[in-house]
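Q: Got a minute? One more chain.
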Amino acid sequence: METQIPPPTFNRLNKFTRGFQNLIDSYGIASYREVNPAPYAIITFPFLFAVMFGDAGHAVIMILFGGWMILSERKFEGKKGSEIWNIFFGGRYILFLMGLFSMYTGLIYNDVFSKSLNIFGSSWFTNKIRMSEDVLLETKDHIMLDPRDCYTQYPYPVGVDPVWQVAENKISFLNAYKMKISIIIGVLHMLFGVSLSIWNHIYFRRMVNIFCEFIPQVIFLLLLFFYLCILVFHKWVWFGPLGGNASGPYCAPSILIAFINMVLFKDAEKQPTGCDSPLLYSGQETIQKVLVVCALICVPWMLFIKPFILRSQAKKQAYAFVETVIVPRGDEETALAPNGSSPQAGGGGHDGHGHGEEFDFSEIMIHQGIHTIEYVLGSVSHTASYLRLWALSLAHAQLSEVLWSMVMKIGFGFTNVGAGAVVIYVIFAFWAVLTVSILVLMEGLSAFLHTLRLHWVEFMSKFYLGQGYAFSPFCFRDILAAAEGADE
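A: Always. Here it is, folded:
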């Protein structure tokens, strides 16, 4: 039996993948044979969460809670609990993975309950030879470490050097580091989403979309935002304390200003006195102008080419449908198609469009214009949206540090051992409650919601429509229950 209704969507799931599929289905159920984001979200979802929740100590709490629910799942399966408990239990594997990934990012940030681990020894040291004893006495609270003389030139083996825990410019350093990392992760995430769209185009045989949407979208992202990521790596690698006037940190140009000048076709601003060049590399301005022009060409490419190709195809189908043979039959004339069948009997469609729909060029043009504007502006706003990774990571670290310094640190200020032990016992209980309730539950929920938004809006909008409906097996019990519910 032929029908125009698309088939329902059925995904084979197990207890591990069901939670991730539920997150995707909350956005919209995939159309039949559409690319399913759930398998990729198994990795990207806990990773993006961990970037914002990077604390190894808080991750241990989450791992223990998720692991306990996994080990006790046979005990709790089938039992009805409160709605909040059912949500936690249904996402037990998500919680466990988020804890594991947060453990990794916590070690990379070298952050454990707002404290750092000095496992391998810091790569920074105090060079007393270059400092007189009077200077050391005057600056015993604050010592400026020059990376040319007080750094081994070998980075800390894993993560952030523990010396930044006691540095006054810790926030400034981590701000720049996490902000750039967020942009790099965001651009790669969006590029991956656009790349997945090609499988939808190939399966549904939308070859026009490959040439008119997929290719210009990838080129647009690569020439502007992936180039921005290359500048970040170039600045990290090329500019250092031993670079002198050519590549010293004092002469390193601002990447943000360079990118703004690139888009506005402005020349680089003059560098401070003593610096060789205001550019990141030779020939930068010429290359950037070429990249921007090529990226701008992608905009009319996405906007105009597809509607005109579709109009040309519609005209060809209309001409093929109109080519009929007029056969006289008494006083009547019957229009026969070239294959000898009557057009009224074949269902070839109206106006030659082949699907019973008239081709409206203005409607296609408006739709393509909206799609193009959404993608171009969305590429800018979505890239900026990934800065939430940096903002929430910084907020989580600062809240943890404030809680330690204003609560837990008080217990270590008592010189009397007996009184100190009692006070620490009470303060630790208070600190633990605040840590679990605020830093793990509330901050964890905030990071979870932001991660969900990054997947729904920034990632899945590049390739996923979610306009299908779930497969429901035929069952008299469900039909009767639905009928009873309708009667009530």
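A: The longest helix spans residues 417-459.
Q: Perfect, thanks.
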